[in-house]
Amino acid sequence: MGTSLIDEIIKNVKSPYLNRKILTKVNKNKVFYTSQQADKNIKVVLPFIFKRDDLIDLNKRGLEGSTARIIECIKEEMKKKKFLELSGNLGKRYAALYEPITVINSDLNIGCDLWRADSYNFIDNGNNNISNSNNNTAEIHLLLRMIFKDKAPKIMSKRIDELSYELNDFIQKIPYKLLEKENINTINQKDLRDKLKDLGIVSFIGDNSKPARSYTKVRRHYRIAGPKNGINVPFKTPEELNPIEVELYDGNIITGLGIKEKEIFIITGRNAQGKTTLIEAIDSGQDDHLIGDGREYIITTKNLSKATTGSMQMYGNDISLFFEKLPKGIAGTPKDVHGTASGSMTMAYQIQKALSTGVDLILIDEDNSAVNLLVSGLLSNWFEGVKPLSEIIMNEREKLTSAFIIITSSLDLLTASGDRGIYLEEHEAKYLDMDKFRKELSNYYLKLSNKVYNKK
């Protein structure tokens, strides 16, 4: 169905904005095609180029930000019931077409079904290696996904012509300052990420960042979820942790919390205080975000790993940093494991592999972890032969060449092994005095031991 119909539509489109150069056999069913939807409507996908002379002056490092802002401006008009073909008339089944997204770029493929800046939607201002434009104008490449009820090719083509002219008029009116501001915002984030190593840190959490997220049916992952509506408590670095100042690309100076190289940083607190939300925001610091996302200045190294519990098949994997012996049913040795790994063995492998490959930062959330790999207990010492992370931190710290950010709530011994930390109360970051905590924990254990020993 698709090939003949799309050819007929293209034949009747008169718009000068249609990017006919890439309407080749190689690109068919990639950048131009039709498909019938579940509701019998027809989706038509075609590439377009719009031009603006003033965008030639934008810095090439931030072009994704300007592109993303153009797309979001168009989406705002969609919600006012303009460009209705681009939104499927705001139908719920077509939410991915008009759903806002504040992620400028991400190494993950999450949200690829959403309309966003990517390899098909970009600005070419002649300052990059993919340039097809001349030196006098910038090209705005947009891949339009349109929904039509009418299946007549000529009628669809006529509306596509009208839509392209309407879009061009709108794009020309988007204020340059808005696109320039988003361009600089993108470069600020990239530049700061490039500076992390010189600063001796692996992550920076900017003061006044707003990590809380709002999820929808098409934005279910925290990396692409939008800013939370209503109350969203800004992050503020406790003064006791010595907030650092960083200068951005544009010359502005901001303050925030720097997570140091090779340090063990603890985030603790009661349930529902935002611990997981904060570590997810730190993970999302690998991405760049549009102004208003709330995470623009949570900047994290891309050289990170996450360690979680789970199960995997091992074929000669090394978990000897944690395991001194293997349980029955698992073949080999701790340096050469074969068999179906338990949750703690899987997590041990993830951490040991991250360390061996020189990862800068390892993220751990207690809620998604194998507890016996994090803290020791009498029974685990008796039966398992597992050396937990807390013990390695205290006794063999030189083996931990990565920084760790660890979320804890009930694992006091792991919390006590940290270098620095915060606790969240009413979603606000408070200073965790490690010396005081260790002293109080020691007294708590002494009292508890007396109670246990004297229990009849």
From TrEMBL:
Record-linked InterPro entries: ABC_ATPase_C, ABC_ATPase_put, P-loop_NTPase
Query: Gene3D superfamilies this protein is in?
Result: P-loop containing nucleotide triphosphate hydrolases
Where the record annotates domain ATPase of the ABC class C-terminal, the positions are 179-446
The protein, known as: ABC transporter, ATPase
Source species, please? Answer: Methanothermococcus okinawensis (strain DSM 14208 / JCM 11175 / IH1)
